[in-house]
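User: Let's play a game. I give you a shape written as tokens, and you guess the letters that built it. Ready? Here's round one.
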């Protein structure tokens, strides 16, 4: 059975102190590159990377164009080289 809740006015936080935007939106920030893939078309090759976003689970990662991610978030590529898909990849055993 539910009990009556006693409210405490000292626990109420004014909205102005929180800093919520009017649109109630936030920016997703990539935190890790999981994989890299090259798709060969008739006249060119398109390189995509699998990106893990902040506040998302591994199952909800997305494939993005590598050149766009390098342009917007170059720090993801400075720390280490992204492995190619293949038998020597450390991610192939996962």
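Assistant: Ready! My guess for every position:
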């Amino acid at each position: 059975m539910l009990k009556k809740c006693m409210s405490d006015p000292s626990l109420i936080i004014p909205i102005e102190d929180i800093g919520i935007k009017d649109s109630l939106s936030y920016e997703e920030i990539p935190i890790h590159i999981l994989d890299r893939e090259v798709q060969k078309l008739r006249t060119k090759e398109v390189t995509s990377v699998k990106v893990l976003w902040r506040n998302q689970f591994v199952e909800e990662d997305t494939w993005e164009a590598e050149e766009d991610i390098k342009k917007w978030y170059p720090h993801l590529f400075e720390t280490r080289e992204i492995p190619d898909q293949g038998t020597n990849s450390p991610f192939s055993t996962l």
